[in-house]
């Protein structure tokens, strides 16, 4: 089962036809070509940063002593984008005013779209209160962890 985040444009109501489905999963294309994957998803700043880091890693890998370190930098960049790329896309859309309308677990996108359409029948479109994600700004904790790291200002 895959998890899909459903985002709606600014000012739209639940069940909007322009809703965007983002599959939250590991991407092999993003692992091997991180800057192209980010550019395809219009994350321009992240794409430029990934390109610069990969070029730095490539330049370091030509050095006889630090060759493996350069390869490690390139692989780490690819792994980070492959794992966190969908989150970067969602964050970019949220900065543009899109809101997360639903989180759906489904086998494929077509099934996720069917489930989303069944949740909000035609004619009964309404605004939802919002979806509370564990690391979102609506979390009850003041400093939610990021990228799987522990939040340190929460106390022990």
Question: How would you describe this structure to a colleague?
Answer:
The structure is a single chain. The protein has 156 residues and is α+β, with helices and mostly antiparallel strands. A three-stranded antiparallel sheet has the order 2-1-3, sandwiched between helices. α2 (34-40) packs parallel to α4. The chain is built from five helices and three strands. The chain has helices at residues 28-32, 34-40, 44-61, 67-95, 109-119; strands at 2-8, 20-24, 99-106. The mean pLDDT is 81. The longest helix has 29 residues, at 67-95. Keywords: Membrane, Transmembrane, Transmembrane helix. It comes from Shinella sumterensis. The chain crosses the membrane at residues 30-53, 65-83. This is DUF2628 domain-containing protein.
Mean pLDDT: 81
Note the overall shape: elongated
Strand content: 5-15%
Report how far apart the termini are: 35 Å
Order of helices and strands: EEHHHHEH
Number of helices: 5
Low-confidence stretches: none
Features:
single chain, 156 residues, alpha+beta, 5 helices, 3 strands, membrane, DUF2628 domain-containing protein, transmembrane helix, transmembrane
């Amino acid at each position: 089962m895959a998890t899909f985040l459903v985002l709606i444009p600014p000012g739209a109501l639940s069940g909007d036809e322009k809703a965007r489905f983002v599959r939250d999963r590991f991407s092999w294309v993003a692992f091997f070509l991180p800057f192209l994957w980010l550019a395809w998803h219009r994350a321009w700043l992240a794409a430029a940063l990934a390109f610069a880091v990969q070029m730095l890693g490539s330049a370091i890998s030509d050095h006889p002593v630090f060759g493996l370190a350069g390869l490690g930098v390139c692989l780490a960049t690819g792994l980070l984008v492959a794992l966190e790329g969908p989150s970067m896309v969602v964050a970019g859309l949220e900065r543009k005013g899109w809101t997360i309308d639903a989180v759906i677990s489904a086998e494929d996108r077509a099934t996720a779209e069917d489930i989303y359409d069944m949740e909000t029948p035609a004619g009964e479109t309404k605004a939802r209160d919002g979806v509370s994600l564990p690391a979102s700004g609506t979390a009850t904790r003041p400093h939610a962890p990021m990228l799987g790291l522990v939040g340190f200002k929460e106390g022990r």
